[in-house]
Amino acid sequence: MRSNNEEVSGVFYQQASAKHYDLRRYYPQAELAGFIEQFWFVDWHLSEQKVHTQKNLPDPNFHLVIESRRVRVMGPVSKVYAYDMCKQGRVLGVKFKIASILHLLKKPLCEYVDTELPVRDIFGETSEHVLLSLYSCESDRDICNSLSAFLKNYTTPININQSRAVDLCALIKNDSNIFTVEALSEKSNLSKRTIQRIFNKYVGLTPKWLIRKYRLHQVLQQFDQGNLDILDIVSLLEYTDQAHLIRDFREVIGVTPGQYVK
User: Fold this and answer.
1) Beta strands per DSSP E along the chain
2) 61, 62, 78, 244: least CB-packed within 10 angstroms?
3) Are 8 and 59 contacting, i.e. CB atoms less than 8 angstroms apart?
4) Residue 91: CB partners within 8 Å, gap ≥ 6?
5) Distance CA 220, CA 215 (A)
6) Closest by alpha carbon to 110, among 82, 88, 135, 78?
7) Angstrom distance (rounded) from CA 187 to CA 153
8) pTM for the complete prediction?
């Protein structure tokens, strides 16, 4: 079992928030690497009076989420989402690779954006009982092994366009110099029309949306480090002007950069 120690991104107030919970992330075994991006487990133990609301940037991936009394599948999220933590609790999660559960869906992928489904709708009638039993397990290794044994029954080889969708999303995430679909087209050697078609079928959100999401990851990171002001960020991330950055920030996050910092 290999831990994912990469820097956490897309989390509001990352440094200040981390003290409220314990987050562990693990890569899947090799045979599931095309199906699962990572396992993620969160535990917290807060005082009776304390409630921590964790906000996160949108996410294009499907997630399997195990809580104390229910198991659900979350579709891609297009807006900021929040989770309230109080007293003592935990969440066990699986982040699926882009397009990897497409064969399990009954409707076009875009219809699952901003939706939650009972786990039985995706993984069968008995899945909730099987997965809920993992909630009380103390060992991360045992949880990962049990989830792997369960989920390997649902894998299927991906086609070339699914693989391209994964590669395009990774390219946007990892290349901080991609600011437009035109730049993505040039870097990937695919036409804009092909990219749009791939995203529509295999991601459910537009490439422009994902580019903006990862640009805002960078903005949050810079604000969290506290070493740049908004004009520096406009220049660093090659926004046209300050108004453009503020508009993107407010549309996705719900407040202006100045309000976020305060």
Assistant:
1) 2-3, 22-27, 36-45, 51-56, 63-66, 71-74, 81-86, 88-96, 116-118
2) 244
3) no
4) 41, 42, 65, 66, 67, 83
5) 9
6) 78
7) 35
8) 0.89
Number of other residues whose CB lies within 10 A of the CB of residue 162: 21
Sheet with strand 36-45: strands edge to edge: 2-3, 22-27, 36-45, 88-96, 63-66, 71-74, 116-118
In the chain, where are the structural domains located?
Answer: 2-154, 160-261
CA gap 119, 126 in Å, rounded:
9
Angle formed by the axes of helices 207-225 and 242-253, nearest 10°: 100
β pairing state of 22-27 and 81-86: unpaired
95's CB contacts (< 8 A; 6+ apart) are: 36, 37, 38, 39, 40, 59, 61, 62, 63
Alpha-carbon gap, residue 197 to 161, rounded angstroms: 10
Contact call for residues 257 and 247 (beta carbons, < 8 A):
no
Sequential pLDDT tens for the chain (262 residues): 899 988 888 888 878 888 899 999 999 999 999 999 999 999 999 988 889 999 888 889 999 999 999 999 999 998 888 899 999 999 999 999 999 999 999 999 999 999 999 999 999 999 999 999 999 999 999 999 999 999 999 999 888 989 999 999 999 988 888 988 999 999 999 999 999 999 999 999 999 999 988 888 877 777 777 766 777 777 776 777 788 878 877 877 777 888 887 7
- Yes or no: is domain 160-261 CATH 1.10.10.60? yes
